[in-house]
Amino acid sequence: MKGSPPVALDDDFLGQVHVYEKHRIGLPRMRPYFRELWRRREFAVELSRSTLRAQNFNTLFGQLWLVLNPLLLGAVYYVLVAIIRGNARGIDFLAHLLGGLFIFYFVSGSILTGTNSVVGGGRLILNTSFPRILLPASATITAFLRFLPTLPIYAAVHIAAGLPFSWAMLWVPVLLLLYALFAHGVAAFFATLQVYFRDTANFLPYLTRIWLYLSPILWTLDDVSGVGVKIKQFLVLNPLYPMLGAWQDIMEHGHAPRLSFLLGTLAWAVGATVVGGLFFMSREREFAVRL
Amino acid sequence: MSSLSVSERAKKGLSDGSRVGGPAVKVEDLSVTYRASVEKRPTLRGAIMRAGRGRRTIRTIEAVRDVSFEVQPGTVLGIVGANGAGKSTLVRAVAGILPPTEGRIEVHGRVSTLLALGVGFNGNLSGRENVVLGGLAAGLTRSEVAEKYQEIEDFAELGDFIDMPMKTYSSGMFSRLAFSVAVNMTPDILLVDEALSAGDARFKRKSLDKMRELVAQARTIFLVSHALATVRELCSEAIWMHKGELKLHGDPDRVIKGYTRYLEVGESAVTDEDF
User: Fold this and answer.
1) DSSP string covering chain A
2) Cα B118 from chain centroid?
3) From the candidates B133, B140, B163, B193, which should be mutated to test the interface with A, based on the most A CB atoms within 10 A?
4) CA nearest A119 in B: which residue?
5) Can you give the pLDDT at residue B52?
6) Which residues 6+ apart lie within 8 Å of A113 measured at CB?
7) In angstroms, what is the C-alpha Rg of chain A?
8) A96-148 pLDDT per residue, tens
């Protein structure tokens, strides 16, 4: 037993034999990492449920607030846009605005809470050994659970505006998954930064605010069709440009998202997951000493 | 394939408590060094404002230096030493929370930790939710957690407080729940860091009894404590850590004698050098 070869066991977290060796900054072994991640998926879900419960979102008025809050925001921006343009836009613009806002708050909410997830999970990190990426993942799930009740609101406005229903709507679950992947990747990235620079979360609200204005939410893609090529090239770099563009193709034009938007969304989702995820995982074994 | 069979054997050996030869925990030439920020709260703003002035704000701390020892299954190992001697770091390294800077640690068995901060990472959640989340994070399935939950609740004796947010708990209630979670996870190896100090006399008695029960089942326990009487009473072996180094390893009486003599004789030296 004792002379057994350098143990090739891959249970880093729970299994019966653990071997901890010299630590290098680098990635953990992927196979056991993802197996443990999968084994603990319940944890991420339970954590978001408990968090929502603690914020009283399981009560009637809590649910109502989840719906009211984005609706009020929608109203604020609707009035703002009407004043700036000097004329009120139709209800189809309200649908455009609300759809964009709801998705924007899903993505940015996931990033903002995800950023604090690691530092906020201090005790758990100091006492238990588990794949830490579950913490930002849980933040994304929380943001998604908060996003869900806004969908019926959007549906109502969509109907009221007389916007089309089509088979293209089957793309929506795919898009939502890609949005979630993107949001999680970015959240993991900022969660890692937050461990090293505790004011990262303080800067983020400013960045997301600018991001909101740069995204096709308060304005439509048609609005900017006249602007110069230079500005347009810049706008296209925004991850939300293809992401919301794909959504608007489905919802406002009733056809499947154009290929460039789909590919753009996919590229941002995969890119953020890979870059954010790898950055997080390469650093996560250091978190315990940094908290 | 072959790795699987090794772990299978280890599993079998441990579950019937009759594994011969192999130590439960083997620590070889372990060093844990970490860079701690001198700033209370490292910020980007701070980093930018300091930029160019070349002031070092990172201090390297050699918390554990070149420590080697083996612990046989069924041992209750007391770990004593002054504040900052590296006791907690050592225990966290064995738990797999802090990675070794040098050396190697081999742990045979399921580990349960009861470290200084206890359970309950989120004060806004109830005791029940924190217990469930802690169990899930430790890799138990939902049904395993449900199975153990009742025992945990009964042992902690928190009454209605179990469903209150943990920020309403007193420190004694906190540590009762933490202890209850750790011992009821039926660990092969239990790592306890300064956890028996809180809680009232009756609960302390109860937890000592529970620890003895675990010892009787050939479980291995690491007990970090400043209560030397407890170490003497409970432990079958002890180590004395001093400034990250292993000073003495052996019979608890001998180790404690060495440690207390050092404290008496070197009192001024300790205060001078350690702090």
Assistant:
1) -TT--S-----SSSSSEEEEE---SSPPPHHHHHHHHHHTHHHHHHHHHHHHHHTTTTSHHHHHHHHHHHHHHHHHHHHHHHHHHTS---HHHHHHHHHHHHHHHHHHHHHHHHHHHHHHTHHHHHH--S-TTHHHHHHHHHHHHHHTTHHHHHHHHHHHTT----GGGGHHHHHHHHHHHHHHHHHHHHHHHHHH-TTHHHHHHHHHHHHHHHSTTSS-TTTTTTS-HHHHHHHHTSTHHHHHHHHHHHHHH-SPPPHHHHHHHHHHHHHHHHHHHHHHHHHGGGHHHH-
2) 10
3) B133
4) B121
5) 60
6) A139, A142, A143, A187
7) 21
8) 999 999 999 999 999 999 999 998 887 788 777 888 999 999 999 999 999 99
Q: Can you tell me the distance from the alpha carbon of B73 to that of B89, in angstroms, rounded to the nearest whole number? A: 22
With CA atoms as reference, report the closest residue to A194 among A289, A90, A116.
Answer: A116
Establish if B19 touches chain A: CB-CB under 8 angstroms.
yes
Mean pLDDT of A198-204: 89
**Cβ–Cβ of A8/B2 closer than 8 Å?**
yes
Q: For chain B, what is the radius of gyration of the CA atoms?
A: 20
CB B161 within 8 A of CB B127: yes
Give me the helix-helix angle, A91-120 and A240-253, nearest 10°.
140
Beginning with the edge strand found earlier in the chain, give each strand of the sheet holding B25-37 in spatial order: A17-21, B102-108, B25-37, B58-71
| Distance of residue B152 Cα from the nearest chain A Cα, in angstroms | 18
Q: Are A74 and A93 in contact (CB under 8 A)?
A: no
Region A261-269: mean pLDDT is: 96
Q: Which among B43, B132, B136 has CB closest to A197?
A: B43
Closest Cα to residue A82, out of A93, A69, A95? A93
- For the segment B179-235, what is each residue's pLDDT rounded down to a tens digit? 888 778 777 888 888 766 566 778 878 887 887 787 777 688 888 888 888 888 888
Residue scoring higher pLDDT (A20 or A15):
A20
Is the predicted pLDDT of residue B43 greater than 90, yes or no?
no
